[in-house]
Amino acid sequence: LAENLINQNNNTAIYNYTAPDVKPPQVVNASLTNSTTLVINFSEALNSTSAQNKNNYSISNGITISSAVLSGTQVTLTTSAHLTGSYTVTVNNVTDLAGNLINPNNN
Fold it and tell me: Are 11 and 87 in contact (CB under 8 A)?
């Protein structure tokens, strides 16, 4: 919500309304910057507590996660070493700044 501007000469007020955010965050993409660093880009800003909880992420093929660090709309995971191959990262229990929970089926 924005502040109101009141015109005292004719008893009117101008105001703005912003609808609340009801759209959950989504994973936009993920990429390895080296064999132990995975950067995940999200569609919007995230709640830092949920985004930096390493237990909210899992990676296929036995990759372990030692930390998760939020910067803007990116989360950087420090992981065990990746070998050549394909991997899937899954994100659960992460929320945006409005409290919308990521949909684990669409991330």
Answer: no
Contact 91, 107 (CB under 8 A): yes
Q: How far apart are CA 84 and CA 103, in angstroms?
A: 29
Question: Edge-to-edge, what's the strand order for the sheet holding 65-71?
Answer: 27-34, 37-42, 74-79, 65-71
CA distance 16 to 4: 8
For 94, other C-beta atoms within 10 Å of its C-beta total 27
Q: How many CB atoms lie within 10 A of CB 21?
A: 14
Average pLDDT for residues 22-40, to the nearest whole number? Answer: 97
Residue 35 CA: distances (Å) to CA of 31, 64, 82, 83: 10, 12, 5, 7
Q: Render pLDDT for 19-28 as a digit per residue (tens, 0 to 9).
A: 999 999 999 9
